[in-house]
Amino acid sequence: MVHALPTSVDATHALLHQGHYVADCSLATALFLALKLHRPLFLEGEAGTGKTEIAKVLSQTLDRRLLRLQCYEGLDLAAAVYEWNYSRQMIEIRLAEAEGVQNRDRLAADIFDERFLIKRPLLQALEPTPNGPPVLLIDEIDRTDEPFEAYLLEVLSDFQITIPEMGTIRAEEPPIVIVTSNRTREIHDALKRRCFYHWVDYPDAARELAIIRLKAPGAGERLAAEVVGFVQRLRRMDLFKLPGVAETLDWAQALTQLDRLELDPAVIDDTLGTLLKYQDDIARIQGSEANRILTQVRAELSAAAIAS
């Protein structure tokens, strides 16, 4: 059964919520337009803000196959697109020689056949599937180099791949493409022009609280509010690495496992490693600074409760 794509921004927002993803209107709009117009969606933002999760949610809610290309320095065509199964080709050549086949053109046609082609994520994404075109996640493209970016231009603009020995392979229907970047380097304009763009920012307090309620329902209301207030204040500080939504959820779940109903200075000091990932940041926050932030959070929550 093929699940239809959402027909409006509201339907896109509902689709994401169905997959337990709390999105703002601008993200739902960008995603709807990308789906409607069959354009890749380029998501840029700090690590841990939920960019990769969008592709996973689309795969889940639309019941489409998820193909993930995890980018890294030195990524080449053999790992991303295709490679020939050389050992099987050599066996085929030996068998042909044993049978007395002398025609080189015929032999070349035999060994450069789809039977010997090992398909990687980019090529797999162009193949038709029973449930509709797959979701192709090109994750952390900023980790690759410019030559690989240049190769992607054909894939992202025409949804086709050229294999010298076989010709050009085109998708019958374009896959759903999500490209993510943590902005460790700038991506070339030529690639960005082929995509719709959206900056995925840290959520505000209200949306982050909604995310915890959805993703970490075991956290009590007071604990969730204090966790969000604490994290929101950390993001205003000059830390080496600000905590993302993923770290907020990790912290809320860790505190829930410790049966905490609210924050206190001791448990903050003991669990900061689930929230912050650099020792210099942890050392800066532990102790009196954590106590000061917690005091401010509680004062803010008390004032909000009185006002309501």
Please tell me about this protein's structure.
The chain has 308 residues and is α/β, with parallel strands linked by helices. The protein folds into 3 domains: 9-75 and 120-199, Rossmann fold (3-Layer(aba) Sandwich), CATH 3.40.50; 83-114, no CATH class; 205-307. Helix content is 49%, strand content 12%. The strands form 3 sheets. It has a 5-stranded parallel sheet. A two-stranded antiparallel ribbon has the order 3-4. A two-stranded antiparallel sheet has the order 6-7. A hairpin with a 3-residue loop joins strand 6 and strand 7. Helix 10 (205-215) crosses helix 11 (221-234), helix 10 packs across helix 12 (245-257) and helix 11 (221-234) runs antiparallel to helix 12 (245-257). The longest helix has 20 residues, at 288-307. The protein is elongated, with a radius of gyration of 25 Å. The mean pLDDT is 92.
Summarize the structure.
With 308 residues, the protein is an alpha/beta fold. The protein has helices at 9-18, 25-36, 51-62, 77-80, 86-98, 104-111, 121-124, 146-158, 189-192, 205-215, 221-234, 245-257, 265-271, 279-285, 288-307, and strands spanning 41-44, 66-70, 82-84, 117-119, 135-139, 160-163, 167-170, 176-181, 196-199. It is 49% helix and 12% strand.
